[in-house]
Specification:
Blueprint (H helix, E strand, L loop, with lengths): L16 H6 L1 H9 L7 H41 L5 H33 L19 E6 L12 H8 L2 E2 H7 L6 E2 L1 H20 L4 E2 L5 E2 L1 H7 L19 E2 L4 H5 L5 E3 L4 E10 L18 E11 L4 H18 L4 E5 L11 E9 L4 E10 L3 H6 L1 E4 L5 E3 L1 E9 H11 L7 E2 L13 E2 L2
Parallel strand pairs: 4-8, 7-13
Antiparallel strand pairs: 1-10, 2-3, 5-6, 8-9, 9-15, 10-11, 11-12, 12-15, 13-14, 16-17
Helix pairs in contact: 3-4, 7-12
The chain binds one RNA strand of 91 nucleotides through helix 3 and helix 4.
RNA sequence: GGUGGGAUGGCAGAGCGGUUGAAUGCACCAGUCUUGAAAACUGGCUUAGGUUAAUAGCCUAACUAGGGUUCGAAUCCCUAUCCCACCGCCA
């Protein structure tokens, strides 16, 4: 759980504290791209206190250790001479109290320092453009051409309802809003998409499939950065152990190597899991259909890579996600997120957005990020460098893809005038040759 | 859910409350020997934090985790987690 001593260093530092001490101005400058205002004066003041107090605490501790070590001998001598050993103990007691006082003072400052440092997001990569929100994201490329329809296109909600295979009302009855229930061909199509994505990543992109828990502990959520800042986005179990439903496979998969030194890099994992998100704070947004659900399926790619290779690996991983859309022949575009839209832990993120004819625009279907050593530092996930020394590795991940949204995109882009849906070529072998979803 | 037994360095495995960061073996690295290799011998071999120009020294911490007793804890006490065995229940 912890780096080093419980007294002197708290867990979950994120930005390298050494970097803050050596290059504070530069860090603050870089964080402006992310629209984060770093409290430099506050940091410097706390850091100065920390340094003084830590040196003090360690020196008292040193004295105490030396005294304790000599105690055995001193007591023996005292007893041999028939002297009282109480004064000897008293001095030890005094040292203990001094030490405890010094530790307490240090801990108080360290706590404030930790709080400050832990609230600092990851630094953005120099190539990340400044900007406030998604409107400032930069389109890098588009692929495919949105179809022209000579009839009025329906959205997936109407298509699904007309097919009698997608039912939000019954899902609401069973559970509540933001859930869906499917049946028949649509349910099969949904499953086939999952299977297709997994097969592609495993057999064409070199990923190893992993099966992981869908319920995780706090430490894992800290490791990937969902906690402590984003607790309200999670479903927490009413359980004294304090467990949570996973909001993404990223959490269990990335944490596979928490507190470990891995032998060989890179490691490429792909996992299919359900994802659970409370969507607190998104009331009224995307309430129609299955764009934003409390429960959805996702195929997630996670890579553990050498620090020198993470940027190349990210580009490659984006390509893996795009390949799925290309094989499904779904038009999309790839954008680079601006600083203001970047997630807390991410150094750089590419979003892939699929074309939705009903909305006449592109909507996010995958998000691919490089976290640098940010998550690795929280997780203590390391590898052995060329000198054989443990060093933080880099983590990257990306959806490949969000299955629910992919289904929706397939429905809308493959719809026919009669309301039936053509099954994309690549999915047919997985659906026993079925070519059309019909009522 | 019940009862018992465990958790020590990469692995195996010692460890009376006081030079134990931790015996020993294996593995690993370097050297000697050898034409080369093996064997044998010699030496090295955990990690984190702080200090520092330093991956040099020095200091602090760590024997699953958290708390307690003590001048002093791997060693004693409490709690949690995980593992093993048996019983009960069960997809």
């Amino acid at each position: 759980m912890r780096f080093g001593s419980p007294d002197y260093c708290k867990e979950y530092n994120m930005i390298d504290p050494k970097l803050l001490r050596s290059d504070l101005e530069s860090v603050a400058e870089q964080l402006k791209v992310k629209r984060f205002d770093l409290d430099c004066d506050g940091f410097l003041a706390l850091e100065a206190q920390r340094k003084t107090l830590q040196l003090e605490a360690e020196s008292v501790q040193q004295e105490r250790n030396a005294y304790s070590k000599s105690m055995g001998k001193l007591m023996g001598e005292a007893k041999a001479k028939g002297e009282d050993i109480e004064p000897l103990k008293l001095k030890g007691e005094q040292l203990k109290n001094d030490s405890a006082a010094a530790d307490t003072a240090l801990a108080a400052v360290q706590e404030q320092l930790d709080e400050l440092v832990q609230g600092i997001p990851n630094l953005p990569h120099p190539s990340v453009p400044a900007g406030n929100d998604e409107d400032d994201n930069v389109e890098l490329r588009t692929w495919g051409t949105p179809s022209k329809w000579d009839f009025a296109v329906k959205d997936h909600v109407d298509l699904g309802a007309d097919l009698g295979q997608l039912d939000f009302d019954r899902a609401a009855k069973i559970t509540g809003s933001r859930f869906s229930q499917m049946r028949g061909g649509l349910a099969s199509l949904h499953r086939a998409l999952t299977q297709f994505m997994l097969n592609t990543h495993i057999h064409e992109h070199g990923y190893e499939e992993v099966y992981v828990p869908y319920i995780v502990n706090r430490e894992s959520l800290f490791g990937t950065g969902q906690l402590p800042k984003f607790e309200e986005d999670l479903f927490k179990l009413e359980d004294e152990r304090g467990l949570y439903l996973i909001p993404t496979a990223e959490v269990p998969v990335t944490n596979i190597y928490r507190n470990e030194i891995v032998e060989e890099l890179p490691i490429k994992f792909v996992a299919h899991t359900p994802c659970f998100r409370s969507e607190a704070g998104s009331y009224g947004r995307d309430t129609r259909g299955m764009i934003r659900q409390h429960q959805f399926e996702k195929v997630e790619m996670v890579q553990f890579v050498h620090p020198d290779k993470s940027w190349d690996a990210l580009d490659e991983l984006v390509g893996h996600a795009e390949a799925i859309l290309q094989k499904l022949n779904l038009p999309y575009r790839t954008v680079m997120l601006c600083g203001g839209d970047l997630g807390f832990s991410s150094a750089k993120t590419y979003d892939i957005e699929v074309w939705l004819p009903s909305q006449d625009k592109y909507r996010e279907i995958s998000s691919c990020s490089n976290f640098g050593d940010f998550q690795a530092r929280r997780m203590k996930a390391r590898y052995r460098n060329e000198q054989g020394k443990p060093e933080l590795l880099h983590t990257i991940n990306g959806s490949g893809l969000a299955v629910g949204r992919t289904l929706l995109a397939v429905m809308e882009n493959y719809q026919r005038e009669d309301g039936s849906i053509e099954v994309p070529e690549v999915l047919r072998p997985l659906m026993n040759g079925v070519t059309t979803i019909q009522p």
